[in-house]
Design brief:
GO terms for molecular function: damaged DNA binding; DNA-directed DNA polymerase activity. The protein is an alpha+beta fold. The chain is built from 14 helices and 12 strands. A hairpin with a 6-residue loop joins strand 2 and strand 3. 33% of the residues are buried.
């Protein structure tokens, strides 16, 4: 049986690239994207990276951005999610198998492909032509090496044209020796410190380290990473995404809230969104956790944080029942006199429908509830999210996030479609 071959297709500066798709006038303008509530920088185009650090608070770098002509955008996850789906659909049409790893990355099955470099370039060109998103492609015999090849493809993009195939052992070893160990997939800051203290400074050093020693000192995950760097495939392609074990919906408020009523609206909104995700993966939940907190970093502000787990009468995906439980939890943890900054709803104890055995006489979700939720999802899928919603969920919340620099939802809102005028 032939050794497996993987490709890692990664979108370049994805959030910033999405902002440029419908704004070609920004092709040469450096861009940063801000986190929820326009708090800090979470994405940068390549030409913005020399001037602003990732994670920098927006209010601290505002003047720097202005000096260098860098444009800032509020995060627009509706736009990014929709473009991501289009990118993944295009890639899937070109390869035998695909694992969507994140919103901007996917592993592809390259087994049996004779001209892998040509296919890599075809993927790049097709994705760019059909979606406007630039990508780089790394190809190797393991997923860890494919990530490393992608890193090299971006680093030496002008030389290799954005596609790097390191299946050849000589080229693979050159890349391993040229890349620092902290660039290896799964090696974080603390792990990098430990490895550096052991004299492991490059990806090559980690590949040559004794696998058993790494397993004893760290974990089997690090051992597998070292083996994958040597070309031994330990991680298979996972074409079907595993169902999440927890689903969380959480946002900071646009401003501090002292009264419980707007927080009730926020909790109902977050619970409703979490239930949509729950039903999308065909799960039921038995517990819901609701939590609220004040701002935690202002030294002059009183701090308070509290959460509670509420038990549901039976495993359910009924938005109405889950919102009711979450609001009861909110009543239990809310304390007057605080300025609240954030609420969170988390669905716990998830189980797949038909894959659990309960007490024969235990209460179960009524069939009528399933039908109501099915109709709710059908309407919202056809006419857009929020077309039908629980009465507790406002259309335009007064407590919503700051998104003063948000671009239009070009692809998901009829009223925000791009307008072209012909003369």
């Amino acid at each position: 049986m032939a050794d497996p071959v993987f490709a890692l297709i990664d979108c370049n500066s994805f959030y910033a690239s999405c902002e440029r798709v419908f704004r070609p006038d920004l092709a040469r303008t450096p861009i940063v994207v801000l986190s929820n509530n326009d708090g800090c920088v979470i994405a940068r185009s390549a030409d913005a990276k020399p001037f602003v650090k990732m994670g920098a608070p927006y209010h601290q770098v505002h003047e720097v951005l202005r000096q260098h002509g860098i444009l800032a955008f509020s995060s627009n996850y509706s736009l990014y999610g929709d473009i991501s789906e289009r990118v993944m659909t295009v890639i899937e049409s070109l390869v035998p198998g695909l694992e969507v790893y994140s919103i901007d990355e996917a592993f592809a099955d390259m087994n049996g492909i004779q001209d892998r470099d040509q296919l890599g370039r075809q993927i790049r060109a097709t994705v760019l032509k059909t979606t406007g998103i630039p990508t780089c492609v790394g190809i190797a015999q393991t997923k860890t090496l494919a990530k490393l090849a992608n890193h090299a493809a971006k680093r030496w993009q002008k030389h290799y044209g954005g596609v790097m195939d390191i299946c050849d052992p000589e080229r693979r070893d050159k890349v391993l020796k040229a890349v620092k160990v902290n660039e290896v997939w799964g090696v974080g800051r603390r792990m990098n410190e430990h490895l550096t203290n052991m004299g492991i400074k490059t990806a090559w050093d980690l590949a040559q380290a004794d696998a058993w020693t790494l397993r004893q000192k760290f974990s089997i995950v690090v051992e597998k990473t070292a083996r994958e760097l040597r070309g031994v495939s330990c991680l298979a392609l996972e074409e079907a995404a595993a169902a999440k074990q927890e689903i969380c919906s959480s946002r900071s408020f646009g401003h501090r809230l002292k009264d419980i009523e707007p927080i009730r609206e926020a909790v109902a909104t977050y619970a409703s969104r979490a239930c949509e995700k729950l039903r999308a993966q065909g799960s039921l939940c038995k517990k819901v956790r609701v939590a609220i907190r004040t701002g935690m970093f202002n030294p002059t502000e009183a701090k308070f944080a509290k959460g509670i787990v509420c038990e549901l009468p039976y495993p359910t995906d009924d938005t109405r029942l889950i919102i009711r439980a979450a609001l009861q939890g909110l009543e239990a943890v809310f304390r007057e006199g605080h300025a609240y900054a954030k609420a969170e709803v988390m669905l716990l104890d998830l189980r797949q429908q038909g894959e659990f055995t309960d007490d024969l006489f235990a209460e179960t979700q009524p069939v009528a509830a399933e039908k109501v939720m099915s109709v709710l999802d059908s309407i919202n899928n056809r006419w857009g999210r929020g077309t039908m919603r629980p009465a507790r969920v406002p259309v335009t919340p007064e407590w919503g996030m700051k998104q003063e620099l948000k671009s239009p939802n070009y692809t998901t809102r009829w009223d925000q479609l791009w307008t072209a005028r012909c003369k």
